[in-house]
């Protein structure tokens, strides 16, 4: 069983890394209980599962498959040691900072119960963007982050409810395949030869990933 260390939210701030945009990457732990809802398809209605959280680029972030973003506190601790600086909960832009979970070893389609009510499904890894690179401010950051292949996981909402820091997180179900968050991330970034392995979890893949697999198959056959 894991633990929800904090629920992290952000207000809109100017984004110096993308012109004409605001950003919500500066997420910080917030007290209290928060309603979690299924936001629906990207670009329609609420951007994420937490109404009080700002998502700066709803064209590429948020929506039903990216309703919440979870990152493990032990991974933040490891980055603190590597970078030699303090990284508070929420610093990587995660809504949920967890402990006691193997977030990057989670399987696509795996379901978690958070607190008493909320059920969330693991949908895929976070792919870092230019805002994340600029926000962290380390030379070669995207390459460094990618090499670790521990990107954290996006979640969809299967059952709404309320959550708060201190809530338990229980893994309810793990599908019978071996496609983890880390494997998906490696396949989509630095190890394209792994893409065919993702088809073992085909029912949990999004259309974009299926298209990427198809393109890679054509490229290799061509």
Could you tell me the number of beta strands?
12
Distance between the termini: 47 Å
Number of helices: 5
Report strand %: 15-25%
Describe, in plain words, how this protein is organized in 3D.
- It is a single chain.
- This protein has five helices and twelve strands.
- It has 222 residues and is α+β, with helices and mostly antiparallel strands.
- It has a single domain, classed as PK beta-barrel domain-like (M1 Pyruvate Kinase, Domain 3, Beta Barrel), CATH 2.40.33.20.
- Helix 1 links the parallel strand 6 and strand 7.
- The longest helix has 15 residues.
- The mean pLDDT is 95.
Q: What key phrases describe this protein's structure?
A:
alpha+beta, 22% helix, 12 strands, 222 residues, M1 Pyruvate Kinase, Domain 3
List the helices and strands and how they pair.
Layout: E1 2-9, E2 13-14, E3 22-23, E4 28-29, E5 34-36, E6 68-72, H1 73-83, E7 96-99, E8 111-114, E9 118-125, H2 130-136, H3 141-148, E10 153-159, E11 161-163, E12 168-173, H4 181-188, H5 207-221
Parallel strand pairs: 6-7
Antiparallel strand pairs: 1-4, 1-7, 1-12, 2-3, 5-11, 6-10, 8-9, 8-12, 9-10
